[in-house]
Write a structure and sequence with these properties.
Elements lengths: L3 E4 L2 E2 L8 E2 L2 E4 L2 E5 L7 E4 L4 E4 L1 E6 L7 H5 L5 H17 L2 E6 L2 E2 L1 H8 L7 E4 L3 E4 L25 E2 L1 E4 L2 H13 L5 E4 L18 H12 L5 E5 L2 H10 L3 E4 L5 H9 L3 E3 L2 H9 L8 H7 L2 H15 L19 H9 L2 H15 L17 E4 L8 H4 L4 E6 L2 E5 L2
Parallel strand pairs: 1-6, 2-7, 8-9, 9-11, 12-14, 15-16, 16-17, 17-18
Antiparallel strand pairs: 1-4, 2-3, 4-5, 7-19, 10-13, 19-20, 20-21
Helix pairs in contact: 4-5, 5-6, 8-9, 11-12
Length: 408
């Protein structure tokens, strides 16, 4: 890869600073200069377009790209599940997302396959299977099915939703197995969930001592634990145990947000999935009871976002989309722009998410030394955030300096 200059674009660099009209120079997959530069091997004319860093989705489920209930009741073949996953990975790129954090559903082989370039997709950081309490959130087997048979729903190397633990020793064994299979961080379910079969949002799951086992194992590998958590008791248990990030945080209150800020625990709200489940529960392959469970969640999550901001919590961005309808991943930025400013939504999806993923300075910014992950938009999404929601507006996408989508 030679020296490439992208010229004529309005650059929104992910830092929150005002847009500027500057040229950006790339070489060997990295950004080498922002501003005036010398000769180049290639010039990309981006006149009239807006450049942002490649977007980051901090909460995805690539392994849940087929209708959920049919997938886990053996009604869909492994070949079709793979096809759905590959299509969703490609759609993420097309929507401008060059990095994603998979918070449960894929096995290590998929991450490797995308990294090798055999399948179109973003850079993927994965927790492997979610760690769940026996009988808790994340189990979708039939009521009569013994827990020990749940792992037979995995497709090794492709998809593996969750692992069940009945005590701290079993959890330690399971997280070690997750790392063996390629996990780069851990995720635990510490409360019930919206898309749940055997739990309620008010349930807490895993004890502080059990969560601390996962934190210890993650620290031994220089990584971290994030937790699925909707209620304050579960969040506080996780923070006390040393978790570094909270997903959803629907009922977060002021005292818990203050504790999170003091311990530098990040929050990743997930609004797009709430909209998805309110308006198309069947499309995700879920029953009508799921829609009943999600009623009121958006209003409470909106309040939690405001509480977290007031407390000074780092707030990232995640879509949490499930099922086949994952092509409009940028809806999360559009929804956040309604609650904050479009620039704040973009920073959450770039610089802040990069920090949460442990990739500060490497992705999520347009600056020398960062990966050349860039999106050129037909229009300015920080002026019109509706542009984020439609993948057609991302007319040119580069991942590590390589063009992976070009609609010019």
């Amino acid at each position: 890869m030679g020296r490439v200059q992208v010229v004529g674009a309005t650059v929104v660099d992910g830092s929150g600073r005002d847009p500027v009209d500057v040229d950006v120079t790339l070489e060997d997959g990295q950004i080498t200069q922002v501003g005036a530069s010398g000769a180049s091997d290639e010039r990309i004319d981006a006149g009239g377009l807006t450049m942002t860093p490649g977007l980051i989705d901090a909460h995805v489920h690539l392994g849940l790209s087929s209708p959920i209930q049919p997938q886990f009741s053996f009604q869909i073949s492994a070949a079709e599940i793979a096809a759905d996953i590959f299509a969703t990975a490609g759609a993420a790129l097309d929507a401008g997302f060059t990095t994603v954090r998979d918070t449960g559903g894929v096995d290590g082989g998929l991450v490797t396959t995308i990294a090798k370039g055999k399948v179109r997709g973003p850079r993927v950081l994965s927790c492997g299977p979610v760690q769940c309490q026996t009988g808790g959130h994340g189990y979708y087997g039939a009521d009569w099915e013994p827990t020990e048979l749940w792992s037979s729903h995995h497709v090794p190397g492709l998809c593996a939703l969750s692992m069940m633990s009945g005590n701290a020793d079993e959890l330690r064994a399971n997280v070690r197995e997750a790392f063996r299979r390629g996990a780069s961080f851990l995720k635990l379910c510490v409360t019930g969930g919206v898309v749940g079969a055997h739990d309620r949002l008010t349930d807490t799951q895993f004890t502080v001592e059990e969560i601390a086992v996962a934190v210890q194992e993650a620290a031994a590998r220089s990584t971290y634990v994030t937790v699925h958590a909707h209620n304050n008791d579960g969040i506080r248990n996780a923070v006390e145990a040393g978790a570094r990030c909270v997903e959803h945080g629907t009922d977060l209150d002021e005292s818990t947000a203050t504790l999170m800020a003091a311990r530098d625990v990040a929050l990743v709200p997930t609004f797009a999935v709430v909209e998805q489940l309110l308006h198309d529960t069947a499309g995700a392959g879920l029953g009508e009871s799921t829609r009943d469970r999600v009623l009121g969640v958006r209003e409470r999550m909106t309040e939690a976002l405001a509480v977290a901001k007031e407390a000074g919590v780092r707030i990232g961005l995640g879509s949490d989309l499930i099922g086949p309808a994952q092509s409009r991943r940028g809806e999360e930025l559009r929804l956040r722009a309604e609650l904050e400013t479009p620039m704040e939504a973009l920073v959450a999806a770039t610089k802040t998410n990069a920090g949460i993923l442990g990739l500060s300075g490497q992705v999520g910014v347009i600056a020398p030394g960062a990966q050349a992950d860039l999106v050129l938009w037909n229009g300015n999404p920080v002026e019109d955030p509706e542009l984020f929601a439609d993948p057609a507006n991302a007319v040119l996408v580069l991942k590590a300096g390589r063009i992976v989508k070009d609609l010019r």
